[in-house]
From TrEMBL:
It comes from Clostridium kluyveri (strain ATCC 8527 / DSM 555 / NBRC 12016 / NCIMB 10680 / K1). Residues 1-17, 52-83 have a biased composition (Low complexity). Residues 1-115 are annotated as: Disordered. This is FlxA-like protein. Residues 18-41, 94-109 have a biased composition (Polar residues). The lineage of its organism: Bacteria, Bacillati, Bacillota, Clostridia, Eubacteriales. Signal peptide: none annotated.
Length: 115
């Protein structure tokens, strides 16, 4: 598991991503938290320049998290497709092996009958 962290000094926000096989829920919670922070900052009493700087920083973090979520979902889909392809391949190999074995059994039976 690799852990990366981005800290924001002006907003006090820390974004941590966990690269696990399926778990995007933690990232989705972080995205929701950042969206809330953007709304709070929009309604804050800060001057317009400070407000915009903080919002831009939060939006950049949100974009990064959404990108990570999308990447994890894509990897999950890719792994699923690879698993399906692998299963199909194994079934075809087993089917071909069974046909070959059936042919061998039939030829053995024929030889046994004539012997």
């Amino acid at each position: 598991m690799s852990i990366s962290s981005i800290s924001s000094m002006s907003t006090g926000t820390t974004v941590t991503s966990y690269n696990s096989s399926n778990d995007t829920s933690q990232l989705e919670k972080q995205a929701a938290n950042i969206k809330q922070q953007i709304q709070e900052e929009s309604a804050s009493d800060d001057d317009e320049q400070t407000k915009q700087a903080k919002i831009q920083q939060l939006q950049a973090q949100l974009q990064q998290i959404e990108s990570q979520i999308q990447q994890m979902q894509s990897q999950k889909t890719s792994k699923t497709q690879t698993s399906v392809d692998s299963i199909k391949s194994e079934k075809m190999e087993n089917s071909n092996t069974n046909k070959t074995n059936d042919g061998k059994n039939n030829s053995d039976n024929i030889v046994d009958v004539f012997a």
